[in-house]
Structures are given as structure tokens and as C-alpha cells.
Amino acid sequence: MKDMKHARKLIVALPLAIAAAASAMLVWQRFTGHRLPGCGPQSACASLAESGWGQVLGVPLSVLGFAYFIAMIVGVMITRRSRWLTVTLMLGAAVSVFYLGLMIWLQRLCGYCIAVHVANLIAAVLACWHARGAESGAQDSSPRSRGNPNLAPGITIAVFVALLAVLMTLDRNDQNQIANEQARELNRSVDRVLSPEPTEIAELNKTIEPDEPSQGLVGRHVSGELPAAVRLVLFLDYQCGDCIELESELAELRREHESIAVSIFQFPLCSECNPSIPYPWFHTRACDAARLAEAVHAVGGDAAFAAAHAWLLERKAKYETDDVRSLCQDLGIDHDEVSRLMHSDQVTQTLRGDVSTGISLGVTETPFVFLNGVELKGIASDPGQIREAVERVLAEQQRREAAGEPSLVRSFVDDPRPPTADQRVLQLWEQAEPAPSVPPRGSSLIQLGNPDSDQRVLLFMEPTYADAAAMTSALRGLADRRDDVSIELFLYPMNATDNPELPEWQQKLYPHSAIASRAVVALSEMKWTDRLHIVFEVTGPEIETESQWIEAFAERLGTVDDDQNAKPSSIEQWKQRLSEPGLSKVIDAQVSLAKDHDVTWGPTLIIDGKLSPTDRITAALLDQMLGQ
Fold first, then answer.
1. Tens digit of pLDDT for each residue in 175-198?
2. How far apart are CA 26 and CA 548, in angstroms?
3. Distance (Å, rounded) from C-alpha 520 to C-alpha 333?
4. Shortest CA distance to 614 belongs to which of 424, 368, 435, 378?
5. Which of 134, 136, 157, 517 is such that its CA lies 20 to 30 A from the CA of 454?
6. In this predicted structure, what is the pLDDT of residue 541?
7. d(C-alpha 444, C-alpha 458), whole Å
8. For the segment 326-335, what is each residue's pLDDT rounded down to a tens digit?
9. How far apart are CA 95 and CA 120, in angstroms?
10. What is the phi/psi pair of residue 191, to 5°?
């Protein structure tokens, strides 16, 4: 009988252990920042964790669940009276039913979360079975069975509380460490604002000639009295949640303080109007929202723009035609004229100018903020930090006024011009820590330049990435003009066939990644690496299947002005190679090599031992990084 009871306990504990293991993986992801397979930034996993449903009274659900499941395993193994345990597990099962229903309703099906909740439901069912077995069995009259029946629940609760306390302490320490680093970044930014000489910018200007004039940065939409001690330039996206938080904080600050001026640029993170965004699915409403704001401005002026700007941020760019009609009516402007202007050349050129300015300055996210000509780093991840930065500048202005020192009160045009995109990338790259590890020499798929050089440039590429052509062209040009650099090209295909551990959302980014990767390997084996650019050119909505991609590639390959490539027999040979099993082995080896060196994204670029902050690298910038 005793062995039977122990076996039933183990059976109940097994699904609890599975739930605990799945929860532990989510806790590990939160603590380390490493992404689990299927848990990328746009995944269901990330969406649920970042939503209001991902926490209970400020405690992350993964942390709470892990502590609960470990405690319940302890409870199952030590309890002698199972009624309290059954009731507890049934309550836990009700919570799991709620969250499973919520995931279905939100259409956010996280595999790890499903595993947790299904295992929890199974444990509750088995606990009922265990309880019935215990009740139907013979009464155990041993002294042990007559012990304190409250001991097991008490121990279980103690384990839960102790484990939760430890995990929450670790979590808060981790979050505090992140917050402290962000605060240090912010303070360094403000230090540059308050320093008498913008030395870092001056140094950069010596190295790379700026494309823009030295006059300070100012947008078309300026609010607040000028001159001012605090001059903020914002690059915003109406579909950006952090932009809403930033604007709310700024509104509070402007009610509390004077001498704050704000200038706004449009920077929709949408590929329709922003060529720096490679993904057609990202912030799909942002471009139209920016057009609407600019059309309202063209018809109604600054006051109408300010109202439309706030309206669009509040709605996160979600609106219907009737909503726009009501907005125009409230503003007293012509809805038909606004609709006409939205897609006019006038508004298109206006929006294009803002986006071009942002790209030229290295804007990569929103909100992107300049304070008195200096980039405020960390604001995009924590917009609330803007208060600390603004109040520190205002306090310094008060101190200078009292001491009779030079004032910070100026106009936007008096600020130093922010660094260009190349200057910013160079600065970030120089400050970066060395990459933890890099692949050994001779392990790349394609070798360019001098393989024995101490200076190495490594590119892990997704062959259908939007900027792959420009990037590989820049690297090939580097190899042609310099003999002191080793350029090594690796494959890191972002597709489910070659890289099945990728999060689901990443697997869908590049529909032709698998066939393009095979094409790259075939070209390398046939010594046709000078034809790589053709891989990057085969794109377009008319190409839907692999066979269409192959025929489109072969057609372009046949038009290359080269005797060898123009031969039909050579093209057929390339086609035959695409189906050879050896190509898959080469790709698998490349993916494994990348993962061994912590590569998680294609493209990833490592220059002279340091991870590049961007894949948009110009020839001039490459030379500067490599010491010429």
C-alpha cells in the first residue's frame, strides 16, 4: 500500500515538474535576456509577457508560476491528507483554464505557456484521482499518519513564499541593474549637453566629413517659446506606444516649467514611406497617420496639427474614415481637402524630407530624442527618463543665472549639429566591447581579401535581407581596394527549414530564404561568387514559389555578360546542384557555427573583433573603422 501511494504521488508530480520546467525556461529568458526559440520580440510569447496579463500585482507570471509548481511538487510528495492539495490544484487549474482561454481570445498562442497550463490541468486531474485512491484505501493507523495534518500545507506555503522572495529579489536586482545602466547612459548624454565644448562631436567631425551643414537641427513643427534652456527634437511614430508615454511626460513637464521648446519630425517605422525599415508588416498604419497629420497641418496650420498630433498618438494611429471626418469637423477644416492632400506630392515630399533627415542622423527607433543637439540614449526603452534629463538642464540653467555664467537659453539653430549616421555608428562601434568569440579562420563559406590579415570583417548573412546587396557590394569593394583585410562571409538563413529554432515570427520574414541560401552555396561551390548580387536582385510580388525564384534567378544569370555564365549548360548545372543533399549539410554547418558564436540574427556584422551596431555600412565608414 505504501508503494502504491508513493507511485500515485510521483504520477501527480510528473506534470507539475513539466510545468515547472517550462516556467523555468521563461524565467531564465527574463533574467538572462537570451531569447528562447519562438520567443522573439514580435512573438506571442513576448506579446503576452509585456501585456498587463503577464504580471500579477507586479510579479511576472513566469516567476509566480515557477514558485507555485515547485511548492506544489513538495506538497504532493510530503502530504498525507490530499484534500487541501486537491483543492489547491483545482484552483490552479481554474487559473490555467482562464489563461488558455485568454490566449485563444487574444490569438497569442505561446508554446511554453500552453505547455505550462496543459501540464497544470493534467496535474489537477491526477490529483483528484490520487485523492479518490487515498480515500478508498485502508486507513493507515501508524503513528506517522496521526501526525499534524497542517504540517504539509505549512511547508508547501513556506517553500512557495521563500522561493518567490528569492526570485523576486533576483528579478528586482536585475531590473535595477538595467535601470542603473540606462541612468548612466542618460547622465552621460546630459553631461555632453552641459559641457562647454561638444568635444566628442568635434572629434567625429574630424574623421568623417558631415553631409549636412553645421547649423542646429530643427523640424517644421515647433512649440514653446524660443529661445529656451531646453530644446528637444523628437522623431516620432504615431503607432509607437513609447512615443505616447514620452509626449505625456513632456506635457506634464511643460505645465510645470517654462523655457522648454519642442520640435517634431515624422519618422514612421513603416516600409511604405521609410526605406530604412525592411519589414512590410511593421507599423503598417504609421505612414498614413503621418500623412494625415501633415495634411491637417497644411489645411489648418499649427494649432490644427497639434490637435491632430495628440489625437493620433492617443489612438495609436487607429482610425476610420468617419473618425477623420469628425476630427476635421471639430477642428473646423475641410475634410475633403485633407483627404486630397494626404497622398499628394506636397505631403509625400514633406514626409520624405523628415524620414531622410532621420536616416541621415542614424535614427533607428522611436522615440528618438535630441536634447540641445545631443542624442539622449535610452529614452526609447524608458521614456520616463526624459523628466530627469530636462529637470537637470533646467537646474543647471538656474545655477548659471545665479552665478552669472553663460546661459543655456538659445534657439535650435544655435545647437551643434548632431553627428551623421556614419559618425554615430563609428562612435557606438568604438565604445563597444569586443565580441565574446569569433569563428576560426577558414570556416567561412566565402573568403574575400587577404585571408592571413589580422584585421577581419565577418558577415553572417540572410541572403534575402533588403540591404544584403548593398552590404556585400561594400565588402567586395573593400576587398578590391585593400589587401590588409580578411573578409569572411557566412550564412545565417532566417527560415524554418534551415534554422528551425528561430522564433516563428522570424521564420516568416524571408519567404525565399531557403532557396536563396541553397543558391548561395551552389554559387560558392561553382566559384561564381562574383554573381552573388543576382541572389539579392531576385525579389518581387510576382515571385511566389521556389520554382519561380529559380527560373527568375536563372534568367538573370543567363544575361550576365560573361562567357562562362552565359552558357546554358552551366546554368543547368547550377540548377542541378540546388537539389544536391550536400548543400543542406553545408548550410547546417554554417548555422551551427553561427550559433556557437552567439549569432542570433542575419545579418550580423563583426568588424575588427567588435559587433557593428548596424548593417548599413558605407565604404568610407569601413575604411575609418579599419584604420584608413
1. 777 777 777 888 888 888 887 554
2. 41
3. 56
4. 424
5. 517
6. 66
7. 9
8. 999 999 999 9
9. 9
10. -60, -40
With a pLDDT cut of 90, the percent of the chain lying above it is 40
From 526, 500, 524, select the one nearest 514 (Cα to Cα): 500
Cell (9 digits) for 626: 579599419
Domain spanning 2-177: CATH 1.20.1440:
yes
Q: What is the pLDDT of residues 465-522, one digit of tens each?
A: 878 888 888 888 888 888 899 999 999 998 888 888 776 667 677 888 999 999 999 8
Concatenating the DSSP letter of every residue in 14-43 gives: HHHHHHHHHHHHHHHHHHH-PPPTT--TTS
Q: Which residue intervals of the chain bear CATH 3.40.30.10?
A: 215-415, 446-625
How far is residue 478's CA from residue 50's CA, in Å, rounded to a whole number? 43
- Cβ-contact 618, 474 below 8 angstroms: yes
Is the separation of the CB atoms in 229 and 398 below 8 Å?
no
* Its pTM surpasses 0.90: no
Q: Where in the chain is the domain with CATH 1.20.1440?
A: 2-177
Enter the C-alpha cell of residue 518: 541553397
- φ/ψ of 531, rounded to 5, equals -110, 10
Strands 368-371 and 230-236: antiparallel
Contacts of 187 (CB under 8 A, 6+ apart): none
**H or E segment to which residue 256 belongs:** helix 241-256
**For residues 227 and 410, is the Cβ–Cβ distance under 8 A?**
yes
205 by Cβ neighbours in 10 Å (0-12 / 13-18 / 19+) ranks as middle
3-state secondary structure at position 628: coil
Distance CA 193, CA 422 (A): 21
Pairing relation of β-strands 368-371 and 374-375?
antiparallel
Domain boundaries 215-415, CATH class: alpha beta
Q: Are the CB atoms for 511 and 517 separated by under 8 Å?
A: no
Number of H helices, E strands in the chain: 23, 12
The b-or-e profile of 212-227 (16+ CB within 10 A means b, else e) is eeeebbbbebbbbebe
Separation in Å, CA 339 to CA 236, 419, 516:
22, 37, 42
Sign of the torsion formed by the C-alpha atoms of 607, 592, 62 and 41: positive
Q: Find, among 106, 374, 422, the residue nearest to 233 by Cα.
A: 374
- Per DSSP (E only), the strands in 278-380 are 368-371, 374-375
Q: Please name the residue that has the C-alpha cell 548545372.
A: 573
For residue 337, report the phi and psi dihedrals to the nearest 5 degrees.
-70, -40
In Å, what is the CA distance from 573 to each residue of 25, 73, 87, 533, 567? Answer: 47, 61, 69, 19, 10
Three cell numbers written together for 324: 477623420
More confident residue, 466 or 623: 623
Per-residue model confidence (pLDDT) at position 288: 96
DSSP state of 370: E
Cα(367)–Cα(597) distance, integer angstroms = 32
Cis status of the peptide bond prior to 419, with omega within 30 of 0:
no
Question: 299 is written with which cell numbers?
Answer: 489645411
What whole-number distance in Å separates Cα of residue 598 and Cα of residue 592?
10
How many residues make up the chain in this entry? Answer: 628
Cell representation of residue 8? 500515485
